[in-house]
# Entry
Amino acid sequence: MSTGDACAMGSAAFWAVSVILMRVSGLQIPPLPLTFFKNCVALVCLALLLLGLGENWMPEIEMGDHLRLVASAVLGISLADTMIAAALNRLGASLQALADCAYAPSISLVGLVMFGEVLGPWELIGGALVISGVFVGATMTNEIRVPRDLWTGVMLAAGAHVIMAIGILMVRDVYREVSVVWVTGYRFLIASLVMMLWSAFSKRQTMAHLFLGFRRRDTWKTMIPMAILGAFMATLFWVGGFKYLPAGRAAIFNQLSTVFIIVLAYIFLREKFTMRKVIGTVLALLGSVLVAIHK
# Structure
């Protein structure tokens, strides 16, 4: 397994654990302050990592690259992450896995449009197995009984993945030239500042509401690990996967997070684990093996 493969698969594992913790935290903290809290924790972790590695705090890049990074942060973190948290509150962990099936096709489509990337036949077969596996495994969840919450949640999650794909791939040339740690930290910094500015001038939200996660110390036992594993570790590995792999291939490995979420939701959240979920898990794992073997 190459460095890129390991990064993409590691991101899926970290993100799955983070989603479970996010589901628990989201029962008490609304999506916006939840996203802001994890962004700030990730930013501190990334700053410490930059300091420990002795890397340049401000690499020389063009002004146009800075502007693209700002747009990427607003789309991929400020907006998409908040949409995912909102969807998770409506769907629960297992059912959100159904909407997460939009992730790999979104990355592949955006990669094709932006870079003309075409997957090989074995990668297409493996990707189809992964996507079909998570689709089969996630469709039988029964946690949502209100149709409005179901379709709103699915649209929020699916839309977030499309926005996220655009946000990360529009700056792929930047993080292939400079430090992944710096690019990730820069995006979180911009995203946090934008959320603060929006709350400061918004009539619907307040700064006090934005900092709710910091005031609710009783939730830190789940929110801090959620932020470290998800916003920090998963995002770092996620960007690393896109740095070393074509967009479609990285997305296929990332899609395994859905399988991990289904399993973890059954173990820790007591969400139903049906035979169809077992079949879906087997299909998805088989697809990931095909992708890994046929590079």
